[in-house]
Amino acid sequence: MKNIFIILFIAICSTAILNSCGHSTNPEDTLKDPREMTWTVDTIQTGDNQTTLGKFTALNSKFIYTYGHCSDPSGGLYLYDGVSWKLKPPPDSFAKMIAFSQSRIFGFSEDRNECAIYFYNGASWNQVHFIDRLVQYTDATTDGVSKIWACGSKGLLSYYDGTKWTSEYISIGFPQSKDFFLSAVGYHNNKLVFTASSWNENNMLWRYYVEKEGNNYLIKDSAAWFSYENKWGNRFFYNSSWGAFYSYGEGGMWKMSGDRWIPFDAEQNSNDAILSMYGISENYYYLCKNINKIAFCNGGEQILLNDKINLDYNKLAFYNIWTDGKEVFIGGYTLDYPEKTIIIHGK
């Protein structure tokens, strides 16, 4: 009898060991290779209006907002519920949205005539902050918990401490500057950074990398627009879920190392214009580049996906991506007028 119990115990242990070996706990093992995905394409247009959405704010693959510009403002927001895109008329056209939950969402107006911040409580949108000046928001970022920074034209910077909003117009000493706007904002390791844009006396657009130090905003680097001589990504910042902080734009991608930007790309090319980056890890992320190229990066190489999706890419532009590693959404619009939103979905 004793021998039977010993044999049973060994058999149970062996089964447990085999099962544990057969099922990896590494989350990257469950990620789906986009070359094995099935691809579909959705077209969104509100009436006959110009509808250039394609920006994403998502909580999961069954709760994704796409938003942007529509010549009819009520057509500027759609929600994907896992089945289809449904119109959710917004109070204004949004330059940026930030969602903490389905009932805690902020929208930042791109309207110069009524620059405002709106809050969605799960049932309705309400205006929670109004800027009485001809300005507009361009970007916003969060600490991932409760704080938000939103930037815009004329140096507009709004801050949410988790309870209330405050705004200011920051001062930056641009050389030979006629006007400037804050085009992007990022927050990483308690550091607030910006890309600012300014026209000089010859009406040439310049981009500046700016950091906040104490109460001051200091220029750390600069480059002429489309010079491809950047030392940081002059379009947007990406604070990844795996803890790394990136910037991207004309000339490629950069990663923050200490207090320096270092080149980062599976295949860095100084002629690339990186328009969007989103992923799960440095071994699994997607890029929109050079207006109409879609690439998957697995840590060692870039793999173009355009030939997997049957579209005429000469008439399309793509600017945004979202993925959970099992599904991917790529947002853009047609280049013929009136523009229509195109969303590619792989799963």
Helix and strand topology:
Elements: H1 2-22, E1 39-44, E2 51-60, E3 63-70, E4 77-80, E5 85-87, E6 94-101, E7 104-109, E8 116-120, E9 125-130, E10 137-142, E11 148-152, E12 156-160, E13 165-169, E14 179-188, E15 191-199, E16 205-213, E17 216-224, E18 236-239, E19 245-249, E20 252-257, E21 260-263, E22 274-281, E23 284-289, E24 293-297, E25 302-304, E26 316-323, E27 328-334, E28 341-346
Antiparallel strand pairs: 1-28, 2-3, 3-4, 4-5, 6-7, 7-8, 8-9, 10-11, 11-12, 12-13, 14-15, 15-16, 16-17, 18-19, 19-20, 20-21, 22-23, 23-24, 24-25, 26-27, 27-28
Kindly describe this structure:
By secondary structure, the chain is mostly beta strands. It has one domain: Methylamine Dehydrogenase, Chain H. Helix content is 6%, strand content 51%. The protein is built from one helix and 28 strands. Strands 1-28-27-26 form a four-stranded antiparallel sheet, with no helix packed on it. Strands 2-3-4-5 form a four-stranded antiparallel sheet, with no helix packed on it. It is globular and about 50 Å long.
CATH architectural label: 7 Propeller
- SS summary, helix count: 1
* SS content category: mainly beta
Please give the alpha-carbon distance between the first and last residues: 54 Å
The overall number of domains is 1
> Could you report the average pLDDT, rounded to the nearest whole number?
88
Largest sheet: 4 strands, antiparallel
The shape is globular
Helix content: under 10%
CATH superfamily: YVTN repeat-like/Quinoprotein amine dehydrogenase
- How do the strands of the widest beta sheet line up side by side? 1-28-27-26
Low-confidence stretches: 1-25
Nearest-angstrom radius of gyration?
23 Å
Topology as a string of helices (H) and strands (E): HEEEEEEEEEEEEEEEEEEEEEEEEEEEE
Instruction: Kindly report the CATH topology.
Output: Methylamine Dehydrogenase, Chain H
CATH secondary-structure class: Mainly Beta
Tell me the strand percentage band: over 45%
Number of strands: 28
